[in-house]
Amino acid sequence: MTATTGENNIVKDDDLPGHSVRLGIDEPLRLDCGADLQNFPVAYQTYGTLNEDKSNVIVVCHALTGDQFVAETHPLTGKEGWWDHIVGSGKTIDTDRFFVICSNILGGCMGTVGPKSINPATGKPWGLDFPVITVRDMVNVQAMLLDHLGIDDVFAVLGGSMGGMQVLQWAASFPDRVFAAVPIATAARHSSQNIAFHEVGRQAIMADLDWCGGDYLAQGKNPNRGLSVARMTAHITYMSESALHRKFGRRLQDRKEITYGFEADFQVESYLRHQGITFVDRFDANSYLYTTRAMDYFDLASDYDDNLANAFKDTPTRFCVFSFTSDWLFPTDANREIVHALNAVAANVSFAEIKSDNGHDAFLLDEQEFIRVLGGFIDGAARHRGLPSRGGDAS
Amino acid sequence: MTATTGENNIVKDDDLPGHSVRLGIDEPLRLDCGADLQNFPVAYQTYGTLNEDKSNVIVVCHALTGDQFVAETHPLTGKEGWWDHIVGSGKTIDTDRFFVICSNILGGCMGTVGPKSINPATGKPWGLDFPVITVRDMVNVQAMLLDHLGIDDVFAVLGGSMGGMQVLQWAASFPDRVFAAVPIATAARHSSQNIAFHEVGRQAIMADLDWCGGDYLAQGKNPNRGLSVARMTAHITYMSESALHRKFGRRLQDRKEITYGFEADFQVESYLRHQGITFVDRFDANSYLYTTRAMDYFDLASDYDDNLANAFKDTPTRFCVFSFTSDWLFPTDANREIVHALNAVAANVSFAEIKSDNGHDAFLLDEQEFIRVLGGFIDGAARHRGLPSRGGDAS
Q1: Per-residue confidence at B394, pLDDT binned at 50, 70, 90?
Q2: Considering CB atoms only, which of A190, A229, A250 is closest to B192?
């Protein structure tokens, strides 16, 4: 099966494996920007089996360029799921015990409605006519999906980076629906530096003449060069300086001497170019604009009198917050702010700063200490919820 | 006077104020890449008066996008010189005592030969036919300029960032011509992360269709969008996260609410766009490719059996190395490597890590402690050299 539409390398929603529902049919979703979204598709995957009392649901929220293919081969890249080492039978998030749901985010490009979807009003791709969305809008769509599935509340919501923002929004918007929340390598508001890096990525996309003012799909073009540059910039921020040094140093790519030219002499150049080139095969440029913008706009406290603690007042949810020592995009300090706010309302919160050399990407990698602590938290929370413990019944 | 060629916004060498000489007339310069460069222009500025025994020369090496207009109004931007607060009558680098020379670097775009200069062989701009140059080539051109001016040796060579690389190369290549050397916020080799950021900038330029494979000048175009994105990316790396936060935070630009769009809602976006837009009025895109490449290639130890200390064996030069605490592009560790190498050969070296919130840009700003220590070093070295001290004769 080829899941691309040829020239544009853009996935047609119909070609994707997995579940898809249409939501907002009876009542549209009122977005934060004021627009209404009606009768729109949401794509999602599930792993494991929903138990009888629907008490074993884990919602996984994916990051900026992630998707719903958490624990299975990706239909476009052929690579294993982005949390395949964490989610599965007998794994830390054990699909023999839990029913895991991950939906493609609102504004995404893997089956959920976004700027590359067809605008029913025009019969053409939305493009920049798609309303600008927020992290709260994304979470509202996920809540509508759970409503649709008849699931009132969930055992746990987990996610890293922008996924972590969604976790925080879940806990703030729907405290009674979330038993446990695990925000990972994230922040309660996007920093000035992070907005700056996103803005560079957006400008790179918009600078590509093939972006066509956002109308490239209708015009049969694709701003691959701009999107590739955006991805390259972002990718540097996902790694630590020391990881880049360890992985590449100043080593040359398939040559013994520098060539005195502009080819990729250094391995790190070759690696980055590869990251850029492969990204455009699976991602939509406008979707990149919308989702980075949603992250930039995220400032949870702004809805709560600029006091983050108010977002979690009287929360019944138990939290486990993770950060990684070498993550300079969402550094420990940004995660600690969340913990401080939770402490200020006497919430049940654990905080683990994981020693790692892998930068922001650490939450996607096989970080043993992270996985061990995460497993401990999940098991402990499951006991409190009265769910069967690892390899046995509820204790 | 308009100093631009209209459509391309590119300075014609003839329009620039200041000095210009042609070098390599009798004997060409053999570049590191093996090419010969013959009869080429070098633009430079001087401040102060050369004393009788030519012992009061200070060479200032400019950074990637700097130029020779150190301490006077810039002919294109109308802004004050980039080290105007340090170089001048009665200032830290006192032009009443010293004769300061700064030349536009080889490969630059402010009067010294570079890719936008006319290739005598074709009568058209060099473009990508210009040979790829190195930091050592830049320093060799500066040495040729001093030869031309009849100056055998210099009291001091100073520079920050890529200017600091030139200072290190000066000390390594011409130890007997350099009495004192001040490398600032620099490194003896460009790091993997820094190569990565440069590569993103280059890819942004090359992704712009108006780059025309490097031939844009001949085709009457200019890759302003790509160059602007490159500048924006680089600009983020010049500031510290805390400086960005202090300067901009999440403050909005001329509005009270977010607009749910892709305009520059945040001040940091507006600021970055401005940096990008103004940069293209004074800089040549190909020149950006060549000079970033020269920095990437810089690895001083590679010419000395991969042992940096060998580059400074038996050096008679006295050094003062500076770093800034919040500089994450050329962090203290990178500067300390230089100090360690100098210590290993028992060189005369001071090292000052300046506490600053201003990131890499600190060396260009009014950093009081930096300026005070720099002044102390210059005065002390001047005494040892037998030059008149501040406000008096030689002691």
Answers
A1: very low
A2: A250
The residue range of the domain holding A124 is 6-190+300-385
- Which B residues 112-131 touch A at CB under 8 Å? 128, 131
- For B62-96, write each residue's pLDDT tens digit: 999 999 999 999 999 999 999 999 999 999 999 99
Pairing mode, if any, of strands B36-37 and B87-88?
unpaired
Distance from the Cα of A154 to chain B's closest Cα (Å) equals: 31
Tens digit of each residue's pLDDT (9 = 90 or more) over A33-71: 999 999 999 999 999 999 999 999 999 999 999 999 999
If you average pLDDT over every residue of chain A, what do you get?
Answer: 94
Q: Tell me whether A231 touches chain B (CB under 8 Å).
A: no
CB-based contact A392:A379 (threshold 8 Å): no
Asked which of A235, A265, A292 is the last residue of a domain, the reply is: A292
- Residue A117 is encoded by which pair of tokens? 């979807």
Helices B224-238 and B267-279: angle between axes, nearest 10 degrees: 120
Q: Would you say B202 and B195 are in contact if contact means Cβ atoms under 8 Å apart?
A: no
Say if residue B199 is exposed, middle or buried (CB neighbours under 10 Å; 0-12, 13-18, 19+): buried
Which CATH number belongs to the domain containing residue A164 in this structure?
3.40.50.1820
The answer to whether residues A51 and A159 belong to one domain is yes
pLDDT for position B14 = 60
A43 and A184 housed in the same domain: yes
| Mean pLDDT value of segment A269-297 | 97
Q: Is residue B360 part of a domain?
A: yes
Please identify among residues 278-317 of chain B the ones whose CB lies closer than 8 Å to any CB of chain A.
289, 293, 296-297, 299
- Cβ–Cβ contact B318 with A under 8 A: no
Answer whether B11 touches A (CB < 8 Å).
no
Distance CA B157, CA B185 (A): 14
- Is the pLDDT assigned to residue A378 strictly greater than 60? yes
The CA-based dihedral angle spanning residues B140, B194, A209, B225, taken in that order and rounded to the nearest 10 degrees: -60
Last residue of a domain, one of B254, B271, B292: B292
> Active site residue: B161, B240, B323, B356, which one?
B161
Facing residue for A132 by CB, picked from B232, B241, B261: B261
Name the packing angle between helices B224-238 and B285-297 (round to 10°): 40
pLDDT grade for A392, boundaries at 50, 70 and 90: low
Tell whether A351 lies on the interface with B, counting CB pairs under 8 A. no
B391 inside domain: no
Residue of chain A whose alpha carbon sits nearest to that of B233: A200
Query: With contacts defined as CB-CB under 8 Å, which chain A residues touch B255?
Result: none
Indicate whether B243 and B147 sit together in one domain: no
What's the pTM value of the predicted model, to 2 decimals? 0.94
Q: Is the dihedral of CA A273, A277, A283, A287 positive or negative?
A: positive
Shared domain for A185 and A207, answered yes or no, is no
ipTM for the whole predicted complex goes beyond 0.90: yes
CA B277, B283, B284 angle in degrees (round to 5)? 115
